Amino acid sequence: MRALSFMRRAPILLAVLLGSPPTHAGEPVVIVHPDSTVRSLTRDEVINMFMGRQKRLPSGLVVVPIEQAEPPGTRARFYQLLVGKDLPDINAYWARLLYSGQAQPPRQAASAEAVLELVASNKAAIGVVDSARVDRRVRVVLDLGK
Questions:
Q1: Is residue 70's pLDDT more than 90?
Q2: Structure pTM?
Q3: Beta-strand pair 28-32/139-143
Q4: Cys-Cys with 123: which of 33, 79, 88, 127 at CB 3.0–4.6 Å?
Q5: In the chain, where the domains are located
């Protein structure tokens, strides 16, 4: 009886496994507008910008950090590689800063495409996307996979 039940579900399971996309095709990269004067950023600069400690880009513009909200694995991977923290720790960090009025968290975009659009339309924006999503609308200033 169990074998029959498995046999009926096997095609569905196979379709789900074969049709499901990978959680990430590459590693997170930090991007800026292609005309930005910022050519590269250090890991420490990116940490400070995404953790609310640095308010300006090296060019002097007020920085607008942008995170990708979906899928959640992209954001989690970014913070794990950047600061070695899980999302609950990052969320707790921002809750403390918001409560005290010290800083605002990075802006959240719904998808990689939304991050690309926002960064491509704002010279003060820095964003994070999977390296596989980068195109000529933006420039990579830090590759967290290296």
A1: no
A2: 0.81
A3: antiparallel
A4: 33
A5: 24-143
